[in-house]
Amino acid sequence: MKILSAYDGTLHAKRALVYGIARARESGGVVTLLQVFDPSLFIDYDAGPQAETAARKESTKYLEEAKQIIKEEALGVDVRVISEEGDAPDLIVRHAAELQADLILCPPGYKSVFGAAPCPVVVVPGTVLVPVDSSEASLANIDRIAREASATASSVVLLGIVPVHLYSPAEKLELEAVKKATVKGTERLKKKLSEKCIKTKELLRDGYPDEEILKAADEFSVSRIILPSGGTTPSELAKAAAILLDGPQKLKWHVLLLPAEEAVAY
After folding, report:
1. Based on C-alpha coordinates, what's the Rg of the chain?
2. DSSP string, 155-221
3. Segment-wise mean pLDDT, segments of 10 residues, the chain, 266 residues
4. How far apart are CA 112 and CA 15, in angstroms?
5. Looking at residue 9, what is its pLDDT?
6. How far is Cα 239 from Cα 244, in angstroms, rounded to an integer?
7. CA dist 35 to 9, 45, 65, 233, 238, Å?
8. Taken in order 62, 63, 66, 67, is the CA torsion positive or negative?
9. What are phi and psi of 249, to 5 degrees?
């Protein structure tokens, strides 16, 4: 996996960098840290010509801090550092394309690159969408879900999905049982995440899982989606993951697939 970590010296950018290094270590990937200084911000600046000089000095300090983080955290991980001048969002998008990045990590100050970038963008901190159905597929991955949310200081939206299209009018009792199991599953997940001090929100939707996932991702400005992709129990969510990832258009959200046996990211 090729990860571009956009860095502005903030605590969120530092967290994103540490997270990116951890992800690269898991996947045998490469991290490129990109720091951008924008001199145009100081044109006609009221504070006078010394403002840019002070800002450049601060930018240099931030870059040294990033290098120290890399030294401490990136043992065995290939991390490259790029320092540029210009418009940060434009340069982030350009470098992501040139590097053929699989993922961009960025602090909230650079969230405008979402949608314009050639690959998925994860804002740190952000919102993680975790779809839930009547199976145990999502619950089986609760520890990894909690770890991902904690590592990126993100909140979690638990999206319970009832696939009503699978049931005929004569199967009302079966459908009601599935709905109850889905609600119970989201409640169990919320309880476990809350115990880990992770902010969560629950909602329940009826419909095709892949369609409801995309709707909720837009509605809650989600930056990543965590889905089960396997396990011993059949899950409509695994089917939804295949539909989303095999679609004709490139998915703008980062999807993390978590089989019951092991985690695999795409």
Report:
1. 21
2. EEEEEEEE-GGG--GGGHHHHHHHHHHHHHHHHHHHHHHHHTT--EEEEEEES-HHHHHHHHHHHTT
3. 96 96 94 93 67 87 96 95 95 96 95 90 94 83 90 95 92 94 94 94 94 94 85 72 76 80 42
4. 19
5. 94
6. 9
7. 8, 22, 12, 45, 37
8. negative
9. -105, 145
In this structure, are residues 66 and 35 in contact, taking their beta carbons and an 8 Å threshold?
A: yes
pTM of the full predicted structure?
Answer: 0.85
Phi and psi angles of residue 232, each rounded to the nearest 5 degrees, phi first:
-80, -20
Domains, the chain, in order of start with CATH, read 2-123 (3.40.50.620), 127-265 (3.40.50.620)
Are 228 and 256 spatial neighbours (Cβ–Cβ below 8 Å)?
Answer: no
How far, rounded to the nearest angstrom, does the alpha carbon of residue 88 sit from its chain's CA centroid? Answer: 20
Residue-level pLDDT at 266: 39
d(CA 83, CA 12): 18
Residue 126 CA to residue 129 CA, distance in Å, equals 10
How many other CB atoms sit within 10 Å of the CB of residue 94? 16
Helices 209-219 and 236-245: crossing angle, nearest 10°?
A: 70
Q: At what angle do helices 11-27 and 142-151 cross, to 10 degrees?
A: 140
Nearest Cα neighbor of 80 from 67, 65, 64 is 67
Q: Other CB atoms closer than 10 Å to residue 154's CB: what's the count?
A: 21
Distance CA 14, CA 17 (A): 5
